[in-house]
Each structure stands twice: as structure tokens, then as C-alpha cells.
Design brief:
Layout lengths: L23 E8 L6 H17 L10 E7 L5 E8 L2 H5 L14 H15 L5 E8 L8 H9 L3 E6 L7 H10 L3
Parallel strand pairs: 1-2, 1-4, 4-5
Antiparallel strand pairs: 2-3
């Protein structure tokens, strides 16, 4: 019969997860550049749907809100779902078409995400940027990610494709992510 194998790399299951005591304003920046094939794109939507369902989304002052954008090259950022606390609305992302298939330029995606949260987020909410990353050569956003962390922004990155098979890319992601 026909078989298919998928390699999954789990980095560390020993860390403790702390629940946030404050509301979050989150933007998901999903990479849709040429390095991301149709299957990876589909799986990213499955992953994010599960993630959305795990959040304390809602309209209240203590609830979290989320926005979703897709990104690729320098001027390729497309807001798919404006910030909302409504799970039904954010779940509509699953049915959206892919925005781009171009190059990868993480710096502009992070700038887009941060500026969006500043303009549309709530003053009292913790700002969070979650971005997917393909390990593009010369990760251009490391210094900017450091600046954002110093400003109190939580950054989480999700490696796609061959990223977790390379120690240099693992180090890039560790530097970018907030601890």
C-alpha cells in the first residue's frame, strides 16, 4: 500500500508552562512564501485553529484578542483577520486563500505585526507576536526582535520545514524568541 512518513522534532518537553495573568493582544504572522508548500500551509492552518481554540478569547477587558496576517517578502503582509476576541471570526482564517508565494523577509513582517498591535491593541494588554519562520538565510530581524523584547513584547516563533534540523537556525530562533 501507499505510505507516507513525516518527521517530527520535539525540542523540549520539560519546560513549565505559565498561564498569563493578564489579557493578551496577539498577532499571528503566518509565513506563506515560496519555501512553504501547500501541505505545510494547510497544516499551519490546522495548527493555528487548535491554538485559537486554546485561548481565553472574548470581548471582556480580561479576555485575550487575536489577529492573523500572512507574510512573505518586503512589502507582502496581508491582514486576514483583524484583531478580535470572537473565536468564530478568527476561525474564518481556515477558509481564506493564501496571500503570497514570494520571498521571505522577516524584518518587515515583525514591523508590520508590532505596528498593528500598537495601532489596534488595547493599552492594558500584553502584546504578543507569533510568527512562523522557514530559516531564510541571513535572518534580518534578530536585532529588531531584541528591541521588541526590551519593549516588553512577547515573541514566539515556530520553525517550519528544515529549520529544526539545523543548529544555526535553532540558534536564530532561540535568539528571536522571548524567554
Amino acid at each position: 500500500g501507499l505510505t507516507n512518513s513525516i518527521e517530527v522534532t520535539i525540542i523540549d518537553e520539560t519546560f513549565l508552562v505559565e498561564e498569563c495573568a493578564e489579557p493578551l493582544d496577539i498577532i499571528v504572522l503566518n509565513l506563506v512564501g515560496a519555501a512553504i508548500n501547500a501541505d505545510e500551509y494547510s497544516k499551519s492552518k490546522d495548527y493555528f485553529q487548535s491554538f485559537f481554540e486554546s485561548l481565553n478569547l472574548g470581548p471582556g477587558i480580561d479576555d485575550s484578542q487575536i489577529a492573523v496576517a500572512e507574510w512573505s517578502g518586503k512589502e507582502e503582509q496581508d491582514l486576514k483577520i483583524p484583531i478580535t476576541g470572537d473565536l468564530t471570526k478568527v476561525s474564518e482564517y481556515y477558509d481564506h486563500d493564501r496571500s503570497y508565494t514570494g520571498s521571505t523577509e522577516a524584518l518587515f513582517a515583525l514591523k508590520f505585526g508590532y505596528e498593528y498591535l500598537l495601532s489596534n491593541g488595547r493599552p492594558h494588554a500584553q502584546k504578543v507576536i507569533i510568527f512562523t519562520f522557514d530559516g531564510c538565510p541571513g535572518f534580518s530581524a534578530s536585532a529588531y526582535a531584541e528591541e521588541l523584547k526590551e519593549l516588553g513584547v512577547i515573541i514566539a516563533d515556530i520553525g517550519i520545514d528544515y529549520v529544526f534540523n539545523s543548529s544555526s537556525y535553532k540558534n536564530i530562533l532561540r535568539r528571536a524568541a522571548t524567554r
